[in-house]
Design a protein that fits this description.
The protein is 55% helix and 11% strand. It is α/β, with parallel strands linked by helices and 957 residues long. Among the domains are: 126 residues, Nucleotidyltransferase, domain 5; 214 residues, Rossmann fold. The chain has an 11-stranded mixed beta sheet with strand order 8-7-6-9-12-23-22-19-15-13-14, sandwiched between helices. It is globular and about 105 Å long.
């Protein structure tokens, strides 16, 4: 619309020639910088070729109220204007419309110089597929003359909205033609407007265009400073110029007198915010994007609001706020889907959704979003398509779908003419070759990429990436010396701008691997210590979502595991154990506010005289176990069975346990339980001795296992389950759950009778009744057992607001309701409560997420999650399952009782009845659960099968 307004103004300048004296100069008619109209009367004759006022006129839509009021004051709602050109008079009607000043030209036959009707015909030609200005300019020039032809083409272009984005070459060609005529401010101004609206990628892909437009914008700045400044700022941002800061100040100075009530000002804010965020000024950049968004939303500028929302989401993605970015982009995609002209913004939003899903590890959704963006773009913008294909290739790499990744990168390289986009695609191809061990192809490509990066981006991030990848190629070729040299050079480059980043830690990790292979163990330990230190710093700096990123968690685990491995190989078992404790649950300790240094001796659980800590740790393809006694004596065991064999046995056993047993499967289950006992417990028996309590720290395939149901045939008179010999407690870190006091006040909540409308597709209404009887039984038992110290919230009372209100005085919280773990977005795992009033909002919507649990104060409070699969979530290498149980520990709870699979409702009620009977006497959750499980096991009926009792476990923190 802003382009159309300027073109209308240009129309006046083109048609108004020298005339008889006594006319009103246009400079007196059009608004000056203050926005005021002066000297305009109905019937005035306008003279002069030039349109411009004193220095800055632009018919901004946000000034329409001011102009409409001024027009109405002396001429009603419209002004009739007559312009004189030679002996001809041209008649116009100037009026204030809903989008600003509108100019309607007379269509009398005598008006031969102003082909208004022809504009519509030309618009049809544009819509039919004209691809360049030259296609239209020659015939139009023959008909009307060059100046009028350019004006007519521009007006037609503005009427065909889709042309702006579907064929930007038209927009660019016309804009450059107009802007090249610096002597005519009307043309120059219209050229600025067309070029200001070009897609950002055009600037980034053509350095010559950028420089030409910067020079041209500077030349016309006196006649249109705000537009010229804004265009120059945007162009310089694309050129990554250090002049942007100064120029942005000039844009702000021009916008302040307007009260920022300008589309250009709002767009300039978003552009600058995006640029600053790209250049590591994240918070200032975010503030500018959010300011642009608020301004655009307040003024109703939908397109600018969409651009600003994209900018904010991009910053959120950079800062690791993945959930917020995904939610924002999902809403934007839905809003834009009804407006076909906004297809590019919709495609950009889908692309950001794809990037977010990829970082969350949801690769299937990432592929879907990226393919939808590509389909929406089709062949309209080849450079944008190239970037989308590069993103798709990265996702296929994460999925290890190498051939599809190669195809995507090849598409990007073929489509792009931009050197950076092409080489990003080549870097992706290089990564596939490295993963596949195709060193013959990777070596020359690596040399090409490194030469380009050194020339185009010396000492910048992409240079460091090229060096690191070249080091991987050297490693694959067996050239350890060159690999070391390249890694040290990459560290030097990174030190200039990213000294504390996790990529620096990754380089130290790669260097440690290199030095270890060269037999330089002491040097390797120094390098891995640097890597560990860097990773620890990142734990403190990154957001919750960033810390759950698959790539970060994987690298974090690899760094710590190599450190532990090197310590073990150097017979430093005690140090290796302490390192393993720091490796475990780093993020959990951070969320809980328990910052522990490596020199702190209290990083492992407190161990009593009758207890042993069994700390399982997966190191590559084998498992080690640290066994620690009350005197903190550490013994190291290497399990003889490989991780792959343990995993196969564990999966087979768990698949039988997680479903109601059939007679035919009982013998198979017992055989697998015995086999896993031989693999995981029997090798440690000499160190376990005659202890009573086993504190378990689990890793790798052991995380899925209900250790209580392991079957020991060697140390019992008859076959017995592990829970019949020991009390079992899973430890999440320092502390001792058995040291808790007996609960004084109990809060039990559950059995909701309705569900939130948001769950209609995830939890059908019928599932509530499936859980209702068992939940009612649990609540009734707790009410009777702990009266009068129990607060019971059931049915309509089981709301989030009621839970929050009753929470402060409770020592024990029992939640008898459905749970919905979300392995892709673990902090969005849900407990299903009763929805509050319709106007209650998110605070009482009947959905209590893991993220909301983090906001509670649960210090000193025992929690029981009696729903299904409440102990599961997203599996991470160092923190285990991240979900509801994890969030409760992070909120301060020292003891959480949760489930590993979908449990029988009746058996659960029976199990918890026994559990609370014992807990009321001993205040030890592990002892209470062990006794409850033994009682079901002793029944000698179907409930003795581990399906009914082994899926419940106690964890401590």
């Amino acid at each position: 619309m802003k382009r159309k307004l300027a073109l209308i103004a240009l129309l006046l300048s083109l048609c108004c020639g020298a005339s008889a004296s006594g006319g009103v100069p246009l400079s007196r008619v059009m608004p000056d910088r203050s926005g005021e109209l002066s000297g305009l009367r109905a019937g005035d004759v306008l003279t002069g070729w030039r349109l411009a006022g004193p220095d800055d006129w632009h018919p901004l839509s946000d000034q329409r109220d001011l102009w409409q009021a001024q027009l109405a004051a002396f001429a009603g709602s419209a002004v009739q204007l007559t312009a004189v050109r030679g002996s001809q008079q041209l008649h116009f009607r100037l009026e204030a419309g809903d989008w600003g000043l509108q100019l309607q030209c007379s269509r009398r036959r005598s008006v031969v110089d102003l082909p208004c009707a022809e504009i519509e015909l030309l618009s049809l030609r544009l819509a039919e597929g004209a691809q360049s200005v030259s296609d239209l300019l020659a015939p139009s020039t023959r008909r009307w003359g060059r100046s009028t032809a350019l004006m007519v083409i521009g007006d037609a272009l503005s009427r065909v909205r889709s042309v702006d984005l579907t064929r930007p070459s038209l927009q660019r060609g016309l804009g450059e033609l107009w802007l090249s005529d610096h002597a005519d401010p009307g043309f120059a101004r219209a050229g600025l407007q067309l070029l200001y609206g070009l897609p950002q990628w055009l600037y980034e892909a053509d350095a010559a265009l950028v420089q030409n437009l910067i020079d041209a914008a500077a030349a016309v700045e006196p006649t249109h400073p705000l537009m010229a400044l804004a265009l120059r700022a945007e162009l310089l941002m694309s050129a990554q110029s250090n002049q942007v800061g100064h120029l942005s100040e000039s844009v702000q100075a021009a916008c302040r007198p307007l009260g920022w009530r300008s589309v250009i000002c709002a767009q300039a804010l978003a552009n600058e915010g995006y640029w600053r965020s790209r250049h590591r000024e994240t918070q200032p950049g975010r503030a500018l994007c959010e300011r642009s968004l608020a301004l655009a939303q307040a003024r109703g500028w939908a397109a600018i609001a969409a651009d600003a929302a994209l900018c904010v989401a991009w910053v959120e993605l950079r800062t690791g706020e993945l959930g917020a970015a995904a939610e924002r982009m999902d809403q934007l995609v839905q809003q834009l889907a009804v407006s076909p002209q906004h297809w590019l913004r919709q495609a950009r939003a889908l692309s950001l959704l794809g990037s977010t899903a990829r970082q969350q590890g949801d690769y299937a959704s990432a592929v879907d979003f990226q393919r939808r963006a590509i389909a929406l773009n089709r062949d309209r913008l080849p450079e944008f398509s190239a970037r989308l294909y590069n993103n798709l290739g990265n996702t296929f790499q994460s999925l290890k779908r190498w051939e599809q990744a190669r195809e995507a990168y090849a598409q990007a390289i073929a489509l792009s003419s931009d050197e950076q986009t092409i080489h990003v695609g080549k870097i992706g191809l290089q990564g596939v070759m490295i993963e596949q061990g195709d060193w013959a192809a990777a070596e020359p490509l690596s040399a090409e990429i490194l030469a380009w990066a050194e020339r185009a981006y010396p000492n910048q991030g992409i240079h460091a990436v090229a060096l690191a990848n070249a080091a991987l190629v050297a490693k694959g070729l067996g050239d350890a010396g060159r690999e070391e040299s390249l890694l040290r050079e990459a560290l030097r480059v990174r030190a200039g701008f990213d000294a504390d980043g996790w990529r620096v830690a990754t380089l130290h990790f790669q260097l440690a691997q290199n030095l270890a292979r060269q037999g330089r163990a002491e040097w390797a330990q120094d390098s891995i210590a640097e890597a560990v230190s860097g990773m620890d710093r990142q734990i403190e700096l990154l957001s919750d979502d960033q810390l759950l990123r698959i790539d970060f968690r994987q690298r974090f685990a690899e760094v710590y595991q190599l450190w532990i491995q090197l310590l073990i190989e150097n017979d430093q078992v005690d140090r290796a154990f302490v390192a393993s404790q720091h490796y475990r649950w780093q993020e959990l300790r951070r969320l809980a506010g328990r910052r522990l240094t490596r020199s702190d001796g209290g990083v492992s659980p407190m161990i009593g005289e009758d207890e042993r800590l069994l700390s399982y740790l997966q190191l590559d393809q084998h498992m080690v176990v640290f066994v620690v006694d009350a005197g903190r004596r550490v013994q190291l065991f290497r399990l003889p069975t490989s991780v792959a064999q343990i995993d196969a046995s564990a999966r087979a056993w768990r698949s039988q346990l997680a479903f109601s047993p059939a007679d035919a499967a009982i013998a198979s289950e017992r055989a697998l339980a015995t086999q896993l006992h031989q693999q995981l417990i029997a090798p440690l028996q000499s160190a376990i001795g005659e202890t009573e309590v086993l504190i378990l720290q689990l890793d790798g395939p052991t995380r899925w296992l209900p250790f209580a149901a392991l079957l020991d045939g060697d140390h019992c008179v008859a076959d017995c389950r592990l829970v019949q010999r020991y009390r079992l407690l899973e430890s999440f870190g320092p502390g001792q759950a058995s040291s808790l006091s007996a609960p004084e006040q109990v809060l039990a909540l559950g059995a909701p009778t309705r569900i939130s409308a948001q769950l209609s597709d995830r939890l059908p209404e019928g599932m509530l009744s499936d859980r209702l009887d068992g939940a009612e039984s649990e609540l009734a038992d707790i009410a009777a057992r702990f009266a009068p110290r129990a607060t019971i919230l059931r049915g309509e009372e089981a709301t989030e607001s009621a839970l929050r209100q009753a929470l402060p005085t409770a020592d024990l919280i029992h939640l008898a309701t459905h749970a919905l773990p979300d392995p892709l977005a673990p902090l969005q795992s849900l407990l299903v409560l009763q929805p509050g009033l319709p106007d209650a909002g998110d605070q009482d919507d009947g959905l209590l997420s893991a993220a909301e649990l983090l906001t509670l104060d649960l210090r000193g409070k025992m929690v029981v999650l009696a729903g299904c699969e409440t102990g599961l979530g997203k599996e991470t290498q160092s923190d285990g399952f991240v979900g509801l149980r994890y969030a409760l520990h992070a909120a301060g709870s020292p003891s959480v009782t949760a489930t590993l699979w979908r449990v029988s409702d009746r058996s659960t009620a029976q199990l918890f009845a026994h559990y609370y009977q014992v807990l009321a006497q001993v205040s030890d959750p592990a002892l209470a659960l062990a006794e409850a499980q033994r009682r079901l096991l002793a029944r000698q009926d179907r409930w003795a099968h581990p399906y009914y009792w082994a899926g419940v476990g106690v964890s401590s923190f």
